[in-house]
Amino acid sequence: MLAPEIDWTRAAVIGALAGGAFWAIAVFVLFSSQGAAAAWTAVGGVAVMMLAIGRFLYRRAASAERRCYGMGLILAPLTGVVPAAVFLLAGVTTEFGTSI
After folding, report:
1. Taking the C-alpha atoms of 28, 32, 34 and 36 in order, what is their torsion angle to the nearest 10 degrees?
2. What is the DSSP letter of 97?
3. Does 98 have pLDDT greater than 70?
4. I need a labelling partner for 1 at 20 to 30 A (CA). Which of 11, 62, 90, 98 fits?
5. Could you please report the per-residue DSSP string of 7-74?
């Protein structure tokens, strides 16, 4: 049995909206905690959980709509990976200097 075809436009919009909300909350938490390691761990844990839930929904869904929600959840934490990596690198560089 073939899985229902996914509407990539809908999945991208869901991913963009969920990713915007996720990263807005993540940046607020990271700034308010002044970049504490526990905050980075919590943000990373939530991102991994979103990926896992999205993968589960995408793989197990019987309808195209549910598969779109699953793919949107997979895309959501990935929308801000590059900016987060840049800020993390900038923070590590200022914390430890350029000797690393």
Report:
1. -80
2. G
3. no
4. 11
5. -HHHHHHHHHHHHHHHHHHHHHHHHHTTS-HHHHHHHHHHHHHHHHHHHHHHHH-SSHHHHHHHHHHH
Q: Give the C-alpha separation, 58 to 98, whole Å.
A: 42
Which DSSP string corresponds to 27-39?
HHHHHHTTS-HHH
Token code pair at residue 77? 């934490």
Cα 9 to Cα 3: distance, rounded to the nearest angstrom: 18
